[in-house]
Amino acid sequence: MDKFLSHKQTFDDNKASTSAQTSIVPKIKSRKYSQEYLNFGFTITEVNGEEKPLCVICSKILAADSMKPNNFKRHFETLHGEYINKPREFFESKLKSYGKQKTFFKKTLSVNEKALLTSYKVSYKIARCKKPHTIAEELILPTAIEIVETMFGDNFAKELQSIPLSNDTVSRRIDDIAEDVEQQLFGKLRDKLFSIQLDEATDRNKDAHFIAYVRFWDGMSAVKELLFVNQ
Known about the structure:
This is Protein FAM200B. It is built from 6 helices and 5 strands; from the N terminus they run αββαααααβββ.
């Protein structure tokens, strides 16, 4: 009996040892970027928090596990064989050009976002003041450019020229704003009790308009909003 127990214990120990060995997963060491890789035209860039090799010649990004000299050499000789005898200074120049280009695109994107936001804000003001849509392109933008040019110089004034404020653009912006306001109002009314007030009004041309207002509580405040207008 003792012999059986001893044999069983030995078997269990071996099983536990084998299980422990199989449960140990070796860690894959990720290679770090080396400045020597620039000799093959490669630098690094960050994609979703992960460093990946990037070719400064064709801007192609390789997988993170491709951080090996052999992979860089194969890519370089296969696609960019004409640059094999180029000195390191050539690739350093390419790297600087890539950095400037990246900065330019970031700056351009930032300017475009600001120009788009400004376009919506101006269009909103035009709608609130009930002015013709052409006033933005014919009066507001030229005046703003002259003001900025006089106060701050030509460089700042040139940035205003990228603001889209044509007649059709302003019209689209106002439609977008109206649709967004409507959706926000509908979203508030979905889970609230509300009352509707109906009214009739006549404009300068003596055309009758059917108007509907909606009243509801928004937090601690009583709110009255225009629901729709039909002629």
